[in-house]
């Protein structure tokens, strides 16, 4: 009898071990954002309870230090299985060997917004549950006061109409500035928010066909035209420059100091709470099309993950509309699908932010899809700040091109053929 009892105990222990879930580590950039963390932890909890093979554990980092933490961990061989990655950074991490292509049912992402899909070298490396979009904030009363046509996606303002609107606002004497561009935020905001103006003038940060050179793309005729227009905005007092106080930028449009503001949908809800007649207008077309930036934070799998099947299973699980809608309702960003948008308060048809879904779907263009972008974005940011502060346009763009060319050469073309 004693021997039988021991055997039963051993079988029970063995069965318990067999049922134990394998741990899948995950890093996330949202430390300090309680709402965002609660939603993510809810998805993780649902996934862990939905099956018996895997258990995801989350470690969150402040966004400001997240990328540096990932790079340091990659060099030390200590990456987690699942990590989130900012869309334009992903090609660099994939090229550097930090990430592996996803192995998910791509039928699940057929209806996702283009900016939520992270592609590199023909393969899917990351998927986002949301995207972000920028629009021109205005008041209905401002358009009426200044006698301005309300632009639409089908008929955006031309560059001439846009400047006429700024002239009307400046000449009215009712505003401290006609336009706010958020110049105080000299980080990723600059390429995300301002590259679309360069594209609309016909220029580019780098040749998007080959990604082998910036010569003629950034410093060609279209780039110079853009740079001169950009400098004029500050020299002629249309917009505050790089010394803008962050508090003034946060409150300026709400308090009526700015007639127009170039801003993201993440600030829309707070603005609507204080500005009854705020409207969100599409980007103007300076002749080569009207664009906004696309691509936000996305989930991917590290190249060193010992259990990629579990990591991919979690990512597939997180793509459900209910979770896309929960993130949208919680943090105000654009749900990745129209069916998820229909489940939200703000992005459903007729909702106050539904226009941002259309902007993201119709106007969004990814920043340069190249590993070199992480360097190119910093070079662009410095050049835009320098030109805004009065530096010679041609000399500044030429110097930026030289820096980009040197970096591409030093990295053997970043894998582009």
TrEMBL record:
**What GO CC terms are in its UniProt record?**
periplasmic space
Taxonomically, the superkingdom here is: Bacteria
Q: Which UniProt keywords apply?
A: Cell membrane, Lipoprotein, Membrane, Palmitate, Signal
Checking InterPro entries in the record gives: Bact_solute-bd_prot1, SBP
The leader peptide range reads 1-20
This protein's record includes keyword Transmembrane: no
Q: Where in the cell is it found?
A: Periplasm
UniProt similarity note: Belongs to the bacterial solute-binding protein 1 family.
The name under which this protein is listed is Carbohydrate ABC transporter substrate-binding protein, CUT1 family
**Gene source species:** Wenxinia saemankumensis
Its organism's taxonomic lineage begins at: Bacteria, Pseudomonadati, Pseudomonadota, Alphaproteobacteria, Rhodobacterales
């Amino acid at each position: 009898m004693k021997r039988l009892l021991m055997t039963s105990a051993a079988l029970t222990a063995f069965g318990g071990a067999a049922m134990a879930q394998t741990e899948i580590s995950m890093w996330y950039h949202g430390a300090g954002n309680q709402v965002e963390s609660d939603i993510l932890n809810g998805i993780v909890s649902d996934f862990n309870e939905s099956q018996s093979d895997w258990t995801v554990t989350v470690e969150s980092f402040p966004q400001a230090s997240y990328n540096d933490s990932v790079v340091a961990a990659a060099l030390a061989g200590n990456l987690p299985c699942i990590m989130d990655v900012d869309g334009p950074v992903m090609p660099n991490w994939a090229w550097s060997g930090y990430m592996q292509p996803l192995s998910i049912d791509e039928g699940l992402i057929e209806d996702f917004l283009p900016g939520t899909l992270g592609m590199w070298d023909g393969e899917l490396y990351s998927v986002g549950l949301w995207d972000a979009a920028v629009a021109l904030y205005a008041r209905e009363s401002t358009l009426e006061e200044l006698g301005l046509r309300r632009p639409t996606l089908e008929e955006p303002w031309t560059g001439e109409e846009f400047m006429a609107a700024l002239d009307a606002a400046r000449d009215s004497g009712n505003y401290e500035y006609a336009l706010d561009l958020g110049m105080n935020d000299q980080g990723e905001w600059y390429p995300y928010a301002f590259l679309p103006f360069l594209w609309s003038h016909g220029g580019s940060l780098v040749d998007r066909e080959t990604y082998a050179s910036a010569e003629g793309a950034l410093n060609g005729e279209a780039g110079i035209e853009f740079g001169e227009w950009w400098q004029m905005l500050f020299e002629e007092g249309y917009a505050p420059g790089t010394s803008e106080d962050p508090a003034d930028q946060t409150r300026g449009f709400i308090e009526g100091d700015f007639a127009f503001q170039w801003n993201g949908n993440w600030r829309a809800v707070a603005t609507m709470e204080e500005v009854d007649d705020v409207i969100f207008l599409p980007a103007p077309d300076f002749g080569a099309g009207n664009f906004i930036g696309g691509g936000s934070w996305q989930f991917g799998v590290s190249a060193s993950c010992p259990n990629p099947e579990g990591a991919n299973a979690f990512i597939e699980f997180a793509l459900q509309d209910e979770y896309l809608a929960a993130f949208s309702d919680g943090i105000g960003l654009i749900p990745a699908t129209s069916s998820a948008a229909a489940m939200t308060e703000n992005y459903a048809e007729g909702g106050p932010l539904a226009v941002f879904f259309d902007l993201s779907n119709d106007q969004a263009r990814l920043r340069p899809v190249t590993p070199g972008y992480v360097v190119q974005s910093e070079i662009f940011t410095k050049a835009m700040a320098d030109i805004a502060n009065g530096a010679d346009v041609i000399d500044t763009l030429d110097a930026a091109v030289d820096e980009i060319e040197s970096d591409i050469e030093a990295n053997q073309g970043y894998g582009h053929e």
